[in-house]
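Journal club side-thread
Mid-discussion, someone asked how the predicted structure for our own chain would compare to the paper's figures. Pasting it here so we can look after the session.
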Amino acid sequence: MTRERADEVVAENRKAGYDYIFLDTFEAGLVLLGTEVKAIREGRANLRDSFCRLEGGEAFLVNAHIGQYSHGGSASHDPVRPRKLLLNRSELNKLLGKTSSKGLTIVPLRLLLKKGRVKVAIALAKGKKTIDKRETIRRREALRETRAAIKSRRV
């Protein structure tokens, strides 16, 4: 009897939520080497400072750091090499059309394992201005204070 497992988030780009407003999200596969997949399963992935680039009708994940596999030996990989994203043609065309307009970019949000495959959640995003970032911080602090007040009343 097989049991369905939930999607396991391996790495998350928390800074992206602070720096960008997400307009649309997609899920893409990745073209990886065997040692990269094993290193991701060990949790050796980092999406901070990574971004997506569209070149020649294809999408690439750039600057994503996937560390060396612990038992890799001589069969190792370059930790920050560009990795091809696997998207449908319609999704690629949509991203290409939107990013050509002013101020939009593609940002990786999280790296996850789904049914044994490595996927990356990407978002079409617009950069936040400094005032928007301050508003996000204010909102987060207000929410934290209300939670603390509710918690202290219960006790």
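Post-session note: The first helix runs from residue 14 to 19.
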